[in-house]
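Subject: Sanity check before I submit

Could someone independently write out the structure tokens for this chain? I want to compare against mine line by line before I put it in a report. The sequence has 82 residues.
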Amino acid sequence: MRGFIALLLVAVAYASPVLRAREPIQDSYIVKLQNDVDLDDFISTVRLAGGKLGSVYRKVFKGFAVELSSKVLDLVSNLSQL
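---
Independent answer below. Compare away.
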């Protein structure tokens, strides 16, 4: 019986579609913050700098998706909270 279940699981795994990554979206990034950083304060700072906020991630990791110009990207990427 165990062998049958294992064989069934392998068959299902091979039948599953493989997800491919899409083309990257220009000027779009996922920002992951350190655990001790206040997410809402950091998001406010990025918005004030001109970032366009997308999804916010609070459960698996602390971060957000954002669209940034190259100038704002340079500013954000040098912050110590990342």
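---
OP: Matches mine. For the report I'm noting this point. The chain has one domain: 22-82.
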